[in-house]
Amino acid sequence: MPLALALEVPPEVAGQIQPLRERYGHGPLLPPHLTLLYPFVPLVAESRVVTALGQALAEAGPIPVRLGEVRTLEPSRTIYLEVLDGGTLARLYQALIEPLSGLIASDRPEYARFAAQGYLPHLTLADEVSTATYRRALGELRGRRFDLSFTLARAILYRLNGHDWHPVASFPLGGEGGPAAKHGRAEA
After folding, report:
1. Three-state SS for 176?
2. Which of 40, 47, 94, 114 has a beta carbon 3.0–4.6 Å from 104's, enabling a disulfide?
């Protein structure tokens, strides 16, 4: 089953972002987050992927983030909040890709885009929505700026089950080298 790795946004920031995600139909998929890897399929036992993620994320520390303007990716009708000074996140992405090489695969266009143009740190507001919803959202959000600063301290691994994503492991950034939750069961 497909997996996704996301950086957890603190509740106080998520509370400001979630109403917009719900307004444009993106809310129920996952809580507000910064995407790291989405979606991918393990080519080996899932436990090996979890171990590799835990080791790579343990070497990262908490990451300060500042959000900026609303941006778009036209072909996929994606609307997102830009992450200012995203160099640390781009380095974390590269630190994950190397140990996961040969362990995961994805046919999603994001992977090809990230490989060709570099990782794009972002917080999605709407993704692959109808043309009408996309135009409405652009009209309402164009030029809007979100001056929000916070620290990312945890990554969550999600598994797609039917149409719903469920957390399966939690990794503190700079943690002990393994998931804070047992594989297959999320921490509360």
Report:
1. coil
2. 40
